[in-house]
Amino acid sequence: MDINFMKIALDLAKKGEGQVSPNPLVGAVIVKDAKIIGKGYHKEFGKNHAEINAILDAKDPLLGATMYVTLEPCTVFKKTPPCVDRIIKEGFKRVVIAQKDPNQAINGNGIKRLKNAGIDVEVGILGEEACKLNAFYNYNMKTKKPFISIKAAMTFDGKIADMRGESKWITSEDSRNLGMYLRFIHDAILVGAETIRHDNPHLDIRGYEKKRPYYKIIISKKLYIPENLNVFKTSGETIIFCGKDADQISIKNLEDRGVIVFQNKTSSNIDADFIRNKLFEKGIGSILIEGGASVFANFIEPNAINRMYLFYAPIIFGKGVSAFGKITPRYINNPMKLDICEYKRIGTDFFVQGEVCSPD
């Protein structure tokens, strides 16, 4: 029974994707006499947490009930009061928790306070599933860096564009719709200057209403970016990274238009750590990199990638722009490895999601 109720809580938590960052995804289910009497999830950053929404949803008295929650109840007062206080006040008999909160301000404190109040606490039911659901948040808390994903749409022979550099469209509309969802669940999308100049993308989110801030990030060493590009016409904050050789007048002109410019004043290169540190300081917890090949290599080389979303269309170019052709060659004894966690057909295409394995 515990597993079944926790599965429901996990499904509820997933509904908060794209809307609660930097907070975690959390779902809660309240059960009394083997019957669900309340459900809730964290719907929006700054609003009620899952536990409170479940309590407010309950139609029956809560005294003696059991709460199933996907993450340890919070003990700190920030945007909302501590959930653990309300749980104790309502007289719950038992609290089942999937995952302990890695946030050091909470980490185990919620469990301890519940136990000290005489509540029976069990931790770890579907814990692995809960950790996977909050991969972005867990990584943020443990490393103080954003979780970085690559999204690549390519041919069966790994080309993201033909010999002319054309890529519209390699994959199907179904794949592109899933790509929009991936943008929606991340805090930011990142591309290189060549992609911006050649494809002139909007870098927006279509089909989803995102209530959290959304960032469009561009890497341009010398800041060669035309001012009339589509990226400057769509919603969301634009951030550009440039090197020491970038023109100061161009920087000022962009900043006057509301663009945030981060310049590496010590090098013409813009390494992954410089980008990750600046973006995490700004509160960005997850980044979706969409190209091109040089940008992929810039993050793959220093092992800065956490996840890959790969879309394969059933076509072959032979010659063209290889998605990963600019990384340092690797051999059979030391390839980059992925732990495949999902694969499926999407329209006419094939989709693979993999977590990047730590280097040996």
Task: Please write out the topology.
Elements: H1 2-14, E1 27-32, E2 35-41, H2 50-57, E3 66-71, H3 83-89, E4 94-99, H4 109-116, E5 120-123, H5 127-133, H6 135-143, E6 147-155, E7 159-161, H7 173-185, E8 188-192, H8 193-199, E9 215-219, E10 237-242, H9 248-256, E11 260-263, H10 272-281, E12 286-291, H11 293-300, E13 307-313, E14 321-322, E15 338-346, E16 349-356
Order of helices and strands: HEEHEHEHEHHEEHEHEEHEHEHEEEE
Largest sheet: 9 strands, mixed
The name of the CATH topology of the largest domain is Dihydrofolate Reductase, subunit A
Low-confidence stretches: none
Number of DSSP E strands? 16
Describe the fold and architecture.
- The chain is of the alpha/beta class and 360 residues long.
- It has two domains: 1-137, Cytidine Deaminase, domain 2, CATH 3.40.140.10; 144-356, Dihydrofolate Reductase, subunit A, CATH 3.40.430.10.
- It is built from eleven helices and 16 strands.
- The chain has helices at residues 2-14, 50-57, 83-89, 109-116, 127-133, 135-143, 173-185, 193-199, 248-256, 272-281, 293-300, and strands spanning 27-32, 35-41, 66-71, 94-99, 120-123, 147-155, 159-161, 188-192, 215-219, 237-242, 260-263, 286-291, 307-313, 321-322, 338-346, 349-356.
- It has a nine-stranded mixed β-sheet, with helices on both faces. It has a five-stranded mixed β-sheet with strand order 2-1-3-4-5, with helices on both faces.
- The protein is globular.
- The two termini are 40 Å apart.
- The model has no long low-confidence stretch (mean pLDDT 94).
- Its EC number is 3.5.4.26, 1.1.1.193.
- It catalyses: 5-amino-6-(5-phospho-D-ribitylamino)uracil + NADP(+) = 5-amino-6-(5-phospho-D-ribosylamino)uracil + NADPH + H(+); 2,5-diamino-6-hydroxy-4-(5-phosphoribosylamino)-pyrimidine + H2O + H(+) = 5-amino-6-(5-phospho-D-ribosylamino)uracil + NH4(+).
- In the C-terminal section; belongs to the HTP reductase family. In the N-terminal section; belongs to the cytidine and deoxycytidylate deaminase family.
